[in-house]
Design brief:
single chain; alpha+beta; Nucleoside Triphosphate Pyrophosphohydrolase; five-stranded mixed β-sheet; two-stranded antiparallel sheet; elongated
């Protein structure tokens, strides 16, 4: 059985040769993050499972890494055991006021995936002075605000989204007010319209820097506020 020192890049690559470089402090909920495909991860777990050749985990840790480390693992095991059969307390969330949108408002969406990455779009020709921004637009006749936001996201990014919640407040840009919704991606890879040059999934910190490239001061400030509100709402989910 292998020893249990802190994982190094070399030991991780032994079972995960396609593991990416570790990124530190990238604005995510974990201070360190590396990426690998689901297939590679599942195959690595299977290989490590086949390497297990001991009868008792805590005893083996004590033998290889010392009683101090084994005691720490024992404490973790005790806490997990206490969770068995217990019902977690319901999370109380402050409801977001759903006031009617102002007349003539546009509707948009901020897509954030399970890894906390944000989707930005680059408007063709940097229309309106926007270099990187979010999908938005007016509602078609008969559309609800949510339907309009989902359609705009689909048309301008090629991604099929699902509304999680409405972001609190209304956001004023150069030409009017926009109501934004936090969304999660359901299906990607679709074609986007000619209004978009390209799209990019980025970390929140990267999104801040890209949004800062927008020439329109009001639009730049609006998108920064939208990003901040969306990331805060995503962390509460």
């Amino acid at each position: 059985m292998p020893a249990w020192p802190p994982i190094s890049t070399g030991s991780a690559n032994a079972n995960l040769p396609t593991l990416s470089a570790t990124v530190a402090n990238a604005g995510t909920d974990y201070p360190f993050r590396a990426r690998v495909s689901r297939k590679a991860f599942s195959e690595a777990m299977a290989r490590m499972g086949e390497d297990i050749d001991y009868a008792n985990f805590k005893n083996e840790v004590a033998k290889v890494s010392g009683k101090g480390r084994a005691h720490i693992y024992s404490g973790v095991w005790t806490q997990l055991l206490a969770l068995e059969g217990s019902e977690p307390a319901p999370v109380k969330r402050k409801p977001v006021a759903a006031s009617p949108p102002p007349k003539g408002a546009s509707f948009g969406g901020v897509l954030i995936d399970a890894e906390g990455r944000v989707l930005l779009r680059e408007p063709s020709g940097h229309y309106g002075g926007y270099v990187w921004t979010f999908a938005k637009g007016g509602a078609d006749p008969g559309e609800t605000p949510e339907e309009a936001a989902l359609r705009e996201v689909r048309e301008e990014t090629g991604v099929e989204g699902e509304v999680i919640c409405r972001l609190p407040g209304e956001f004023r840009g150069d030409t009017g007010v926009t109501v934004f919704y936090l969304m999660r991606p359901k299906k990607s890879g679709g074609k986007f319209g000619k209004e978009t040059a390209t799209i990019r999934w980025v970390t929140p910190d990267e999104a801040v820097k890209l949004i800062e490239q927008t020439v329109s001061e009001r639009g730049r400030k609006r998108d920064a506020q939208v990003l901040k509100a969306a990331v805060a709402a995503w962390k509460e989910q």
